[in-house]
Specification:
This protein is α/β, with parallel strands linked by helices. It has a domain of about 180 residues: FAD/NAD(P)-binding domain (3-Layer(bba) Sandwich), CATH 3.50.50. The protein contains 13 helices and 21 strands. The strands form six sheets. It has a seven-stranded mixed beta sheet. A hairpin with a 2-residue loop joins strand 6 and strand 7. Helix 11 packs antiparallel against helix 13. The longest helix has 26 residues. About 50% of the residues are buried. Flavin-adenine dinucleotide binds next to helix 1, strand 18 and helix 12.
């Protein structure tokens, strides 16, 4: 092992045994480094990518987890951890609206909608394309959607769906998380699909993802224990960090010293638990917004009536924004073939309150409204399961980048590295592959001196973005893809991301 710092026999401490912490831990072991430990407040590993099994034998993920990878290292690691114990699923998505299924991407398949709605969508797009400069001028996600898709597609799908997912007014959301590239929908392609009655879907034979055969999504993370278990302590809840004396305090009274700290706990909570963070840094947490999630699973005693994977729900006929036929991912999700499991996701926030005490009933009614369940299924529901998630989505709001550019340099100055879905607080690098790799790359930086590539220095990154935006020739370059929130988005480097 080559250390790029001559001072490495430093004590490395990792807070959080989710994908980011486990990725870092695995890499430390792989490089032969031994002076480290990892802590989690839960009594299990996997964080948000864990799974739970109920007494009836159904397995629940914390929302549908689609494994997607942009990294060879991650692919190889998945192969090593899962071996042959995986299934392969077609990345197939649908939208339910106006009492019908529309293949995703929505805008390419509007021919499924009533003729007056098709006309409204097409006319809106034609109108929008008369002023393409509005795409570059859009100052937030809301105005970007109008400029990019036109009034019809915005009204029927993009705006209601995105509010349902993010639980924040989309006028509060920035356009930065989509990167510099923004797709202009092809009017020609849309018209061709309408006139030729052709489906234009985002999935195809090569569009598959792996899913653990056993244990749900969490089945990918429990095998890490074999490699990192000796350094792991569970049920360790961090209550404070003294960044001057470099100590972490746990609720059970234990104190641990570190030289280098990787933390994956939510960034706002970390900062507010630090002893010396200046007011400016504490205040910056006000710019970090997140949604919460109510994940409800419904197990039904009959063979699965559909081969679909997941569906989006933009309308108010259901509380959820997405439903996954989780039992189609692996036969071991349910007790036997005579059962199926629907996993629903509902978001909430101060802008979109949801009552957890009524959510299961509302979800079941919603499933009947959208015809995923028949009224006669009410007698066949054998189990329901509610997972309440405090921190579900880090929302890319307009004030986010400024906050990160204030907080992260302060942390780095104190040898604290906040990474992962809520550690970095960057949705665009918040999937499982990004998270594992943020951990791996940080260790590569510490031990090998390699620059991190998934996580970018935000102060530096913000400077680059504003520099680009001040030069008109770099604005709003055209890529291809779709803006939906979870399944399809653009990364700053312009790559087409399909996951989460
Ligand atoms: C609804 C939903 C759907 C998703 N869908 C997808 C998908 O389709 N595809 C995909 O790739 N990804 C998906 N994700 C994202 C995926 O779950 C994350 O990428 C991943 O879990 C992030 O890993 P992490 O380690 O950064 O954070 P986490 O998983 O949040 O892990 C952080 C860990 O820190 C611990 N911790 C927090 N506070 C403390 C404390 N005070 N003391 C000690 N420990 C603490 C937590 O217990 C946790 O184990 C989804 C997430 C959600 C919520």
């Amino acid at each position: 092992m080559q250390n790029h710092r001559d001072d490495l026999e430093k004590k490395i401490v990792i807070l959080g045994a989710g994908p980011t912490g486990l990725g870092a831990a695995y890499r430390l072991q792989e490089l032969g480094y031994r002076n480290w430990s990892i802590y989690d407040r839960n009594n299990y590993v996997g964080g948000l990518a864990t799974s739970f099994v109920d007494a009836a034998g159904f397995t629940y993920d914390i929302g549908g987890h689609v494994m997607f990878s942009h990294y060879k290292y991650f692919d190889d690691l998945v192969d090593k951890l899962l071996g042959d114990n995986y299934t392969e699923i077609m990345r197939e998505a649908w939208v339910w609206m106006m009492d019908r299924f529309v293949p995703y991407p929505f805008q390419n398949n509007i021919r499924y909608l009533p003729p007056d709605v098709v006309l409204e969508c097409v006319m809106g797009l034609i109108e929008a394309q008369k002023t393409p400069e509005r795409i570059a001028e859009a100052t937030n996600f809301d105005s970007l959607i109008d400029a990019q898709f036109g009034a019809g597609i915005a009204k029927y799908f993009m705006k209601p769906y995105n509010f349902k997912v993010w639980a924040h007014p989309i006028t509060h959301m920035s356009r930065d998380w989509l990167g510099e590239r923004v797709a202009i929908p092809s009017l020609e392609r849309i018209l061709k699909n309408i006139l030729s009655d052709g489906d234009d879907v985002g999935w195809g034979p090569n569009n598959k993802f792996k899913y653990p055969l056993y244990g749900g999504t969490g089945g990918l993370y429990t095998p890490f224990l074999k490699y990192v278990g000796d350094h792991l302590a569970l049920n360790k809840n961090v209550v404070a960090v003294d960044e001057e004396s470099k100590q972490v305090f746990f609720s059970d009274g234990d104190i641990v010293e570190y030289d280098l700290l990787l933390t994956t706990m939510p960034l706002d909570l970390l900062v507010n638990r630090m002893y010396h963070a200046p007011e400016q840094v504490r205040d910056a947490t006000e710019g970090l917004h997140h949604s919460s999630g109510l994940i409800v699973g419904v197990g039904v005693n009959r063979p699965c009536p559909s081969e679909k994977c997941w569906l989006y729900f933009p309308e108010s006929t259901s509380p959820f924004y997405r439903v996954t036929y989780l039992s189609n991912y692996s036969p071991y999700i349910v007790p036997d073939n005579d059962h199926f499991l629907l996993l629903t996701e509902t978001s909430s926030s101060e802008h979109k309150p949801e009552d957890p005490t009524t959510i299961i009933d509302r979800v079941i009614n919603g499933l009947i409204n959208v015809r995923l369940l028949e009224p006669s299924d009410l007698d066949r529901i054998v189990t329901t399961y509610l997972i309440e998630v405090d921190y579900s989505y880090p929302v890319p709001t307009i004030d986010r980048n400024r906050s990160l550019a204030t907080i992260q340099p302060y942390l780095h100055h104190h040898d604290i590295y906040s990474r992962g879905r809520f550690g970095a607080w960057e949705y665009e690098i918040g999937n499982m592959d990004h998270s594992v790799m943020q951990g791996v790359e940080l260790v590569n930086y510490w031990l090998l001196g390699e620059k991190e590539s998934t996580w970018k220095d935000f102060a530096e990154h913000s400077k680059i973005i504003s520099l680009l935006n001040s030069q008109p020739q770099f604005k709003a370059k055209v890529g291809h893809g779709h803006v939906v929130g979870e399944q399809y988005s653009f990364r700053p480097n312009g790559a087409h991301v399909v996951a989460d």
